[in-house]
Every structure is written in C-alpha cells, then in structure tokens.
Backbone:
C-alpha cells in the first residue's frame, strides 16, 4: 500500500473548506423552491377542496389563505415560482451547451435572482 502523507489535511471536504459560489447557491435555491412550490400547491388544493365541501369549512380555509401568514406564503410562492421558472430556462440554456463558462453562468444566476424579484413585483402589482 502506498504511504500517503495525511498530515493535517482534512479527510473529507467540509463546509468550512469551501466558500459558497453563486452557481452552487442558485442550484440549491432551485431545489428549495421546487419543494416549496409543492407546499403552496397543497395549500391551494386544500382551499379548493374546502370550497367544494361546505361553506363553513371554506371559511376556515379562506381565513388561513387570506390571513397575513397566507399572504406571506402566497407571495413567497410567487417568488419561488418565478425563480424556479427562470432557473429552468437557465438549465435549458446549459443543456443546449451555451453559457457553461463561469462568467456567463454567474451572469445567468444573477439574472435569475434579479429577474424573479422583478417579475414577482410586477405580478403583485398587476394581479
């Protein structure tokens, strides 16, 4: 067996070894927003099922959805939806073989972040 000088090196990479990069953060955010959209979809399905059940049950569900907490969840869901959509388009660009160099990938990541905020504000104003 080879004599490997392990010295003071860590045995495996750790979070303190690497600093987060924009491309890794945007990738993680894409996964987080995808899962968060499932929660928002379940809330909307619950609201629709309550509407078909009884007026009393709909009043409860509608009260939750239209409360400050429901408004916050739905606003963040719109932000997550726009971000996830733009990140999906970014991924399609990558799949086509374009934008794979680091500067372009970082510009596309910034465009996803900024674009999702701008589109969320436009959605809230127009709707």
Residues:
């Amino acid at each position: 067996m080879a004599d490997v000088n392990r010295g003071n090196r860590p045995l495996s990479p750790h979070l303190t070894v690497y600093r987060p990069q924009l491309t890794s953060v945007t990738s993680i955010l894409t996964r987080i927003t995808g899962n968060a959209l499932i929660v928002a979809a379940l809330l909307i399905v619950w609201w629709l099922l309550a509407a078909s059940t009884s007026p009393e049950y709909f009043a409860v569900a509608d009260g939750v959805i239209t409360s400050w907490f429901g408004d916050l969840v739905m606003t963040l869901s719109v932000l997550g939806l726009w971000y996830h959509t733009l990140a999906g388009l970014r991924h399609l660009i990558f799949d086509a073989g374009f934008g794979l160099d680091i500067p372009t990938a970082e510009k596309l990541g910034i465009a996803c972040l900024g674009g999702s905020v701008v589109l969320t504000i436009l959605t809230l104003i127009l709707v």
In short: Residues 43 and 65 are 8 Å apart (CA to CA). The mean pLDDT is 90.
